[in-house]
Amino acid sequence: SLKNALFKIRHVIGLIKDSPDWFKKEIFESLNAHEELIQLLENAIHEDPPLTIKEGGIIRKGYNKELDELLDMTSSNKQWISELQKQEIKKTGISSLKIGFNRVFGYYIEVTKSNLSQIPDHYIRKQTLVNAERFITPDLKEKENLILSAEEKSKELEYRLFQQVCEKIMNHISSLLTNGRTISWLDVYNSMATTAVKNRYVRPNITKEGPIQIMQSRHPVVEQLLDEQFIPNDVYLDHEKQQIMLITGPNMAGKSTYIRQVALLVLMAQTGSFIPAEKADIKVVDRIFTRVGATDHIARGQSTFMVEMLESANILNNATSNSLVILDEIGRGTSTYDGLSIAWAVIKYLATEPVSQPLTLFATHYHELTELENLYPSVKNYNVAVLEENNQLVFLYTIKPGGTDHSYGIYAAQLAGIPSRVIHNARLILSSLEEKGKAESWEIAQREPSATPRNTRPKRMPLAPGLEHESYSSQKIISQLKSLDINNTTPLQALIQLARLQKSLYKNKKK
Asked: For residue 189, with 0-12 CB atoms within 10 Å meaning exposed, 13-18 middle and 19 or more buried, which class applies?
């Protein structure tokens, strides 16, 4: 294995010898193919040695003269044994006669009991079996001593020679370990470079101070799992204009994906990797703090909300102005007003605490928090864009400035397969809560909902909502295409318009 590895290192050295000077200094000059070790291992160690190291068969023929003589002696004596068997069969006329070996009795001549009358007088009985007798002869015993002596000596000599080879290798152990470390770094560089080229990554500009500004950022994992194209988004964080991005929007619209991808890209950049984006300026952060997901530690007596609060406490107590913080749904594990109050206070602390003020991405369904933009200059509202038609949604996965006052949780419940009666009743209660307050909503919740199919499931969300009600002729489609202002149409708008036209075309074909 060591020899094969050194062969590979020799090949790697040949590949990178013409690399830029900075790379050669870091990689090329620290690699050593150890040609003398390659030659040693090539000459000394058999190409296919056994798994054990004390039973011989390790050292290649031609490496040591004494070993070669012992091996030749063993080989020639074993050939003598084979010839002896042929001679004894011919002399005695016993065709089943054979010469064998075991560790207890050594070499022996075995004759079946039916042929015992034909054995010569000089055969000496050694062992009796059920169906055969075993014999030895003076000549056979003499050869046995020579063979066993040569075998034992050759095995001992091979083991000593193997140890000597190991000692010679140990003299180079420091350089071999350097080879290992260098190859491991080269593997990291190569993997990063391959991934960057394959997935269209760019080199970020790393700074000690300044903003985190990433143009058209993408999630490095999610984009590989999607069948369709990943929708990229920009991000901008600094301590003067936009320290906290407060992100609202529907369930499943991409808030969590967005804040996590920002943290991942910052981490990737600080490991030396290129990142999935069009352009990036990223300041070095001392730590990345995250509070995402919902977990509990029941065995420790910690509910999901307590775990959430413990993680939040760790962040607030340890984050610095050089940290990056991502917070997903702070305060959701308790009553609405409790949770809203905690989330509000956390944002205020992050925005005003003079010691910390870390760059922060804060995703929430508490729409009341969007008012904080008016109270704290470093807080800026963003939301995830959607299209809404006829109680149907199209998620655009685009982060845009401004807040939103809808979470569309009932729509998410509908997509999950919640029964239609439950969805219908939830809409009534929500409407009442929004318009008339708690008391009247409680009365409505006690009533039976109006008749709806009991076992129906929600239909799959159409690509472009509302198109099932439209019927365009081919001429109208052509007319719309001609009137489309390409120069003033964003890629996202173009995709939406294309989906509408495609849907209407299919509709006409079915008719």
From this structure: middle
